[in-house]
Amino acid sequence: MERLTLHTKRATAVLQHAPFVVLYGVGVFEMWRTIGQPYEEALAKAAATQPDDGSDFLPPCMPLPGEYMPTFASRLFVGASVILHILMLLMQHWSVAFHCWLHYRPAPLKEATHALATPPVHQGKPELVAIERTAKGVPYIRFQKQNYMHNPVRLHEHGGFVRVACPDELPLEEYAQHPGLSTPSAKARIMQYGENKFEIEIPSFQDLYVEGLLQPFSVFQFFCVLLWCLDEYWQYSLFTLGMMLMFEGTVVMTRRKNLTSLRGMNNAPRSLLVRRDGAWSRISANKLVPGDVVSVPRGTGGDEDIVPCDCLLLKGTAVVNEATLTGESVPQMKEAVFVDEETAPVKLDVQNRHKVHVLWGGTKMLQHTGAVAEEDRVWSKDSSQDVLDRLRTIAADDVPAGTPDGGCLCYVLRTGFDSSQGRLVRMIQYSSEKVSGNSKEALGATSWLEEGRDQFDLLLHCILIVTSVIPPELYMQMTLAVNTSLMALMKAMIYCTEPFRIPMAGKVDACLFDKTGTITTDELVAAGVVAVSQFPEARAQHKLLSVTGSKPQERHPMGSMPLEASVVIAGCHSLVDVDGKSTGDPLEMTSIKAIKWRFDTNTNTAMPTKDATVTWPASIKPSVKILVRHHFASKLQRMSVVARVSTSTDCGVRGLCVLSKGSPEMIGQLLKDGTMPAWYTPTHRSLAKAGMRVIALAYRRCDDDYDETSVLDAPRTALEKDLLFVGFLAFRCLVRADSKDVVQNLKQSSHAVTMRVSHETGAAPLTAIHVATEVAITRTDKSKLLLLGEKQHQPTADGSSLVWRSADTDAVVSSFDAKTITDLAASYDLCVTGPVRLCAAETSELVWKQASSVRVYARMTPDQKEKLMMALKDTKHHTLMCGDGANDVGALKQAHVGVALLSGFGNANVKRDELTQGDKKSNADAAGARLHVLVTCVHMFRRVRARVCVCVCVCICACVCVHVRECDASIAAPFTSKRPSIESTLDIIRQGRCTLVTTLQMYQILALNCLISSYSLSALYLDGVKSGDRQMTARGLLLTVSFLSISRASPLKKLSSVRPIESIFHPALFLSLLGQFAIHLGCMMYVVSMAKPHLPDNWEPSITGKFEPNLINSVVFLAECVQQVSVFVVNYKGQPFMTSITKNSFLLYSLAFCGAGAFLCASNFFPEFNKLLQLVEYPSEGFRKTLSFVLIGNVVGTIVWDRLMHLIFAPTILFAGFKSITKEDVRKTIKMLLVVGGIMYMIASADPEVWEEYERQMEEYEQGAAAAE
């Protein structure tokens, strides 16, 4: 919630109608007072002009007004009052703020009955919600499925209403000592948090239909229909009205279908054991509330395996699949939170430090080991209620030691829409509002009164001018453009939950990629080991103990692994059993497989296989039993376990041991004093330079300090010290095959590409630099790579000793100065680490402002990633972030375009996607069939203008709506790719550029068309200019196809080296638009002035009469056709951002036929064809040539002017477009000219008598229908 204000109802709200009642009274009185006055004035004027005629009528162009008609001013006054009154009522429906201002007044909390809550942009709409009170009288509201309670202490935040905080940040001791809720407390929390389910209300068809018809767009269309009815275009009006109603009905049905699908995301309720009043009882998972102590076992499959809410693991362990939320493909092991004197006061951090102890709602439980309480061991699923009652013996204040059914003992943290799954549902529901472009069209046109014209008729046409300048199809054209992009992305297995971000992708100028799992694969290859051993049999490893020099040591094959290193690898891991198969981190799987040991998940014991290469005495026979795991933490850069190492004979690594692994830098700090080899740092740096991921291995015997009981409760910090180094384990992380090509394409298309490495990967900065060089993010010249670090390799608090070092030689190149970062980046590729950057930021605020100058960020924590994205946004960069969705949630949400790569989906989902795409193709085919029927109807409604056809067709096509399902979306980012490849970022940027360019070109095309129409309805209306039925039909059919085709353009496969223009107000576009309109207007005025001298001397413009072919109608029709074609051809952007017009066959041929037909008529080459289109003969050969040259000049002039504006203000785009022209484009252009020429010749050679007979029959039909009425 962004803003909240308190209100109470106005006592005088009903008085909103009082001003209009007064206006109605004044208007009605004036109408009654002036009844018959226009009639009398008309008679007097007629008598004055024709005193001897005795006729009751003025000239045919102006019939007498009604005998009892009031004056025009009184009718206008009443009509305006009615319209204002209706607008006031509609504004209350359109704007919640306006409704609140009209019916409510600001009030203090004691008097307030309602609150106006406003969400952030693109996250829903404002709502006026009622203020309710709890049983204790505490005010609260419910907004967007979440409760906000009044807190007097935080009055500065939204008037004191803050979101009801779930108990997810309490000290750990409170969770560990929590006995469960009492029944009254649980009921109170139900009122406070709501039930644990996703309540998605589905309005009735009638409610949604009425709501849609009252939208501003629909009301505007109704107003236009009414205007055309008043102007005697009743067929046109009824046709438009019918299409509007059909369109809205289709939209409503789609919305209901989407809401039903969204409600289906709610998990089927399952029954669980919950501890209330000190006893276990079985309740529905829907009744769980934060604070409950619950048993969560693995179910029998389906929804029974789904974790019902976010909960903290207190007892037991679990293995869960979090792919549905984060896309993490590797099953995650969750362990019970450990609480001792040191950690007891620490607050829970579910996102970072303690996420390994949290079960997320909506994830799937694959395996669990529960903690069964002694007194409840006899419980079974078949136990009767009597047995359950007998087992409820635990005192209410006692902390449960386990669960009756053997499930995991958990503390419920968040439920309903506050849970992780609920937040995903809310994001899909409230971020998927209607999408349309922001149009800033110019309003207004001028006309003038002329004596002898009916005032009402002139006012009507003035309003028609205004409505013509506001294109009603703009909204649907923008919706169609976005929906087209959404469907194209879905075909590429990319799903979007925030469609408004698609045009943003066209503005991206900075791309950031995570390394592990994004640029590289999750697959690791064990490259070798550099290890030490106490056994002479280990040869080379044994010799390393006596090496005193600092020269880097060579690595050896994995088969020569000594005992100490083998024990650490086999014992220090987080592998789990899923359905009888070990699974876990790919690095750990690869390690154990490489040394040929096996791990028994039932006994948590590892031992060598018979194929293992033994470099120690065969009589030792080692085995490792894991007792306690301390999981990997990004902040600590290490993990460790306490294990029992068993050997048949005494050796160095035996008994109770701490086995640890992590980054070389961190493990080096934990080694026992005097035990670190001199070659330690040079060796791991050498391996990292070679692009390897280096893991340091160490252990410590602790038999003398702990036994198997006390070691379970020992603090982690006490165990992980005085370690003995045993070696380095090196891995190669394979780069994805297409990563380099994608990065090169992005760099060539004017995108700054940066790579970031997470703390979670453990990769050293030198490893990150090697990968960045391999995929062309940085230069291949190693001397041009700089790494920011400490002068003495020792961190300082203030960062005063920071220097730039060569990543190749480690030599100091320059001292650190924030002011010179940009200059340094021009000559070098810069790399920094997260901790060092924080130190640098302490010296100057410029560090974050120059974030775009750094090419590689290594060892960044999630918070640092998020802050980096915010810094780039603050410096006006449009950012794209691509990550795996597990560790990058904050950064992905901060980026303008966040892309989560999901790899946790199998073939089942692929098959389901294929079926879904088949359904979408069927919908598109059905829309195409409806379009064919629509085109046929155009022949029946011959008075329908081109825009009506466009509106209806676009409406039908826009109904092929796109809906994102929960299984396709990720809570991590607005874009979700199911392809494990960064190539999806290219698809998103392509579609973003295409959508952005399409939006801008639609602004230009619709603006020019509407400006031309406004001139035709104003100045040319006074000259009696009309179009014939054949003319309207021919032009309407061709332009309908053009409008449909222009929104269906697809992007080019290769990204252009230039970025598109981002605003319609860019000089290249805005000045082009003004210049084109001036050329079109000048051309129209000139051809009209050409035609007027050749009209008969007694010619008078017929404003209300039927269409009659004459010279001025003919030249205006030809000029309009050529101008319409010119508008499309000139403003269709095409290359270099989307397919050229030659590859858009429907658009190309429709414009070609329309333009060729117009020039054919202008040349009068086939007089029969002119007659067919109801065009008159030209007065002379000179007139024909002049008309043709003017039309050619109109087209050439607009093209030259547009290209000139681009040459001056956007030359790179102009030249890139020229370079993109291919031989295929030329070939298709020639083919089009031949085809169009042949068909036009066939049409022109047709017998015009057939068309005349058709016209005569239609006129007879209309006259008969009129007579019947």
Automatic annotation (TrEMBL):
Membrane topology term: Multi-pass membrane protein
SUPFAM superfamilies in the record: Calcium ATPase, transduction domain A, Calcium ATPase, transmembrane domain M, HAD-like, Metal cation-transporting ATPase, ATP-binding domain N
Residue ranges of domain P-type ATPase A in the record: 268-370
Pfam families xref list: 2TM_P5A-ATPase, E1-E2_ATPase
InterPro entries attached to this UniProt entry: 2TM_P5A-ATPase, ATPase_P-typ_cyto_dom_N, ATPase_P-typ_P_site, ATPase_P-typ_TM_dom_sf, ATPase_P-typ_transduc_dom_A_sf, ATPase_P-type_domA, HAD-like_sf, HAD_sf
Regions that span the bilayer: 72-91, 1002-1022, 1064-1088, 1146-1166, 1186-1218
Keywords: ATP-binding, Magnesium, Membrane, Metal-binding, Nucleotide-binding, Translocase, Transmembrane, Transmembrane helix
Record domain P5A-ATPase transmembrane helical hairpin: where: 76-107
Key word Signal present: no
Family per record: Belongs to the cation transport ATPase (P-type) (TC 3.A.3) family. Type V subfamily.
NCBIfam families per UniProt: ATPase_P-type, P-ATPase-V
The protein's name in its UniProt record: Cation-transporting ATPase
Organism, as annotated: Salpingoeca rosetta (strain ATCC 50818 / BSB-021)
